[in-house]
Specification:
Distance between the termini: 126 Å
Helix content: 40-55%
Order of helices and strands: HHHHHEEEEHEEHEEH
Oligomer: single chain
Number of domains: 3
Length: 276
């Protein structure tokens, strides 16, 4: 130890005291990280419960809670670094110098954050809506600060960045109170269109879920090569759309055949000419 003191001019007791101090600070910094991250998680969950009790929009709930969690974690990290002995003025100066590079590197992330804010402000959709965006269709489950989470009908989870979602086309299937249901089917040439129309109108009249205003429509869409194509339009409450659509298809398929109406197949007339 005497040799170390002669070489570096530092007393062993000073080195020992420095190591003890650094070890203590490092241990405290690690405890700050562990406890701080745990508290951030608890605060985030508590904030979610409070916002939900106040009937805040679910999209805003997930956005605010995830944003608060991120801010608290950053503060915990800064506090932990300070505990080790790093001067925050120097740390802030380094961050400022690197700010431009970080901003460019995370430009997409910042765009996603701005997109999340736009979604919450403009409200093109909310949690629970069925939407089609970025080529993906599903029910909105969460709107977080950077991403929107969709659940598909077969229970796949699709994570979409908020930036492209906010700036792209969005089809919201559940925002309006009512939707128009369209059916297209074909009958054979020779079948009575009056019978087709009267039967479809009877089906519509019997279904209490189909609205009377606007009035339903039944008409001939195309006179195709092998069939008469019929189009039906009716309005229903948004929640009834799927059930009405599929049940009407099933009823038309089952009952048309019993009334002598025919579903056409592709046909071709062939004329043979004899040569003598």
């Amino acid at each position: 130890m005497k040799l170390l003191e002669d070489l570096f001019g530092i007393k062993y007791s000073d080195i020992n005291q420095f190591l003890v101090k650094m070890g203590t600070n490092l241990l405290i910094a690690i405890l700050i990280l562990i406890i701080g991250f745990w508290l951030a998680k608890v605060v985030s969950k508590g904030l979610k419960r409070v916002l939900r009790k106040s009937h805040t929009d679910e999209g805003l709930v997930t956005f605010i809670s995830s944003f608060m969690s991120m801010v608290l974690r950053i503060l915990v990290v800064i506090t932990s670094i300070t505990q080790i002995g790093v001067e925050m003025t120097s740390f802030v100066a380094i961050l400022g110098a690197a700010g431009l590079a970080i901003g460019m590197a995370f430009s997409g992330t910042l765009s996603n954050f701005a997109g999340g804010v736009m979604i919450l402000v403009q409200k093109p959709f909310k949690v629970g809506d069925l939407v089609l965006t970025q080529g993906e269709k599903g029910v909105v489950k969460e709107i977080q600060i950077f991403n929107t989470y969709l659940h598909t009908t077969d229970n796949k989870v699709i994570i979409l960045p908020n930036g492209p979602v906010a700036n792209g086309n969005i089809t919201n299937f559940t925002k309006a109170d009512k939707r128009r249901v369209d059916w297209k089917f074909s009958v054979a040439y020779g079948d009575s269109f009056d019978m087709v129309k009267s039967k479809v109108e009877a089906f519509i009249q019997e279904d209490q879920r189909i609205l009377k205003d606007p009035a339903p429509f039944v008409g001939i869409l195309h006179l195709a090569h092998s069939s008469v194509d019929v189009e039906v339009q009716a309005w229903v409450s948004t929640d009834d759309y799927n059930e009405v659509f599929y049940e009407m298809n099933e009823r038309i398929y089952k009952e048309f055949k019993t009334d002598g109406l025919h579903y056409p197949f592709p046909q071709m007339d062939v004329h043979l000419r004899s040569q003598n």
